[in-house]
Amino acid sequence: MDRLVARLIGAMTASRDPSSFDPESTARDLSPQLQAVDDMLGRQARGLRVPAGLIDRVFQASVGLLPGRVQSPQIEVVARIGLRRSWWSRAALAASIALACTASLRVVHTPTLPQLVWGIDAQIQPVYREVVGRTLSDMEHLLVTREMTIDDLDMELAMLAADLEM
Amino acid sequence: MSPSNQSETLQATLRRAAQGDDAAWRKLVETYAARVFGLIRAQCGNEDLAQEITQSTFCTVVVKIAQYTEVGKFESWLFRIAMNRLRDEMRRRKRQANPVQDDTLAGLAGAGDGADQTGVADTDELRALRAAMARLSEVDLRVIQLRHYGGLSFAQIAQVLGQPLGTVLARQHRALKKLRQLLGPDEAES
User: Fold this and answer.
1) Which residues contact B179 (CB under 8 A, 6 or more apart)?
2) B51 and A51 in contact by Cβ < 8 A?
3) Is the pTM of this model over 0.80?
4) Is B150 helix (H, G, I), strand (E, B) or coil?
5) Interface pTM (ipTM) of the complex?
6) With an 8 Å Cβ cutoff, are A66 and B22 in contact?
7) Is the C-alpha dihedral spanning A23, A24, A29, A35 positive or negative?
8) Contact B38/A48 with Cβ under 8 angstroms?
9) Start-to-end C-alpha separation, chain A
10) Is the minimum CB–CB distance between A155 and chain B shorter than 8 Å?
11) Which three-class secondary structure state does DSSP give residue A166?
12) pLDDT tens-digit profile of B132-174?
């Protein structure tokens, strides 16, 4: 470990341009013993079998969701509406009056901007609290039961923070 | 192809996919689905679940692709989505006390009984390696899995895990050293 740290510091300080530091080459610079273990891991990973047809299944399941590909269902006329024109005009008039009344009532009770923001916030906060609360309670349980180390907790918290940022 | 050309090609492919181009999307699926599957398979030890998570990951990505702006972090973004999907599924199964849970959790820790836990044909060498991997801490194991099964660079692993690059490099070194100790000199150099 000390050798690695010394090598990292050496690599970073020896370079005039810090952006030219290449972690890949530094990490590849392993002792022959560790390189052998790394090679074994590589062999194991390369030997993994991908199930036949996986690519096609994944493609078929997702291609319909591409932007611009989600089509609205077509409305088909299954029968001719044979109602009398006068009935339709009365129904349309009644619907217009109902719509106008509803709209005017909503205009009278239009909330101010702070009320709107508070309303949205009030809807989001419980969901946010539930998700984060659940994750934290999981972590607490795992820590108490010693199923999780402090390192794991540190990584979980870092990932949770990154998720919230996303 | 040089890294800058690869990056430009990926950027162009992502742009075309975001515009609804089937062929571009197919190319992305062909390039990354096997890697996502490999990583998730190694982490959960369950082939069916790994396929399910892979499919769900790409469905999530395709829905968000129009809003995504490529700044060289597509792979980190993709693998993070996959790992989050797996984590959520494991939590859900744990809460529901699903009978599959024990096997799957053992797989998540990298434990193997030699029964083809990672989908790789068994040999003594690989059985020993899997047993040794089961004794790594989860954080160290994740670095190894992202590196070898996900095929990510160390910088990308740092992005996926939200950890500094130096920490990731140190963890990989620590993990290799521990594996070597556990395997013994003969096994590690065979």
Assistant:
1) A37, A41, B129, B132, B133, B136, B188
2) yes
3) no
4) coil
5) 0.80
6) yes
7) positive
8) yes
9) 34
10) yes
11) coil
12) 999 999 999 999 999 999 999 999 999 999 999 999 999 999 9
